[in-house]
């Protein structure tokens, strides 16, 4: 769940980049920065209260200066100063959401046990369009063997379809447990 802090920083970044005309570039760079932040060592370093803010900022400047837009770099440095750097991934995700809304695009994520064929993906997208307020859907696909079979579909952050075997097995287990309780209580 996104916190208010992440939303405030993301909204400020969105408004500033929209005003500067750099929204598209910053959006692309934010995605790269999100990937960098997934590295546990980087998260641990930036989140450590033992590491002085100046050391964190020196590292960020040395690694990112000239590689990302100054506005995005300033956001990262400000979040370090305010001891809010751990909210950066959520802020970047919400910034991506704001840019998608501005463009009239909604993200759809299709999760399956095996890669899907183009026709299968298109059929899912066509079916999911009825749940979206937007005409354009940005589609990403994830392969996760834990789903066992079937698909799980997210529209933005909301799960709209869970037709996975794992989900069906969980439902069956719940039904059997409820039946067992009913029998035991009779």
Helix/strand layout:
Elements (H helix, E strand, L loop, with lengths): L3 H17 L2 H15 L2 H8 L5 H12 L5 H12 L6 H16 L1 E8 L5 H11 L7 E8 L7 E5 L2 E5 L2 H21 L1
Parallel strand pairs: 1-2
Antiparallel strand pairs: 1-3, 3-4
Helix pairs in contact: 1-6, 2-6, 4-5
Describe this structure in words.
The protein is an alpha+beta fold and 186 residues long. The protein folds into two domains: 4-101, Orthogonal Bundle (Peroxidase, domain 1); 104-169. It has eight helices and four strands, in the order ααααααβαβββα. The protein has a four-stranded mixed sheet. Helix 4 (53-64) packs antiparallel against helix 5 (70-81). The chain starts with a helix and ends with a helix. The mean pLDDT is 87.
Which H/E pattern describes the elements? HHHHHHEHEEEH
General form? globular
Radius of gyration: 21 Å
Number of strands: 4
CATH class of the largest domain: Mainly Alpha
Strand content: 5-15%
Q: Low-confidence runs (pLDDT<50, min 5 residues)?
A: none
Distance between the termini: 42 Å
What is the CATH superfamily classification of the largest domain? N-terminal domain of the delta subunit of the F1F0-ATP synthase
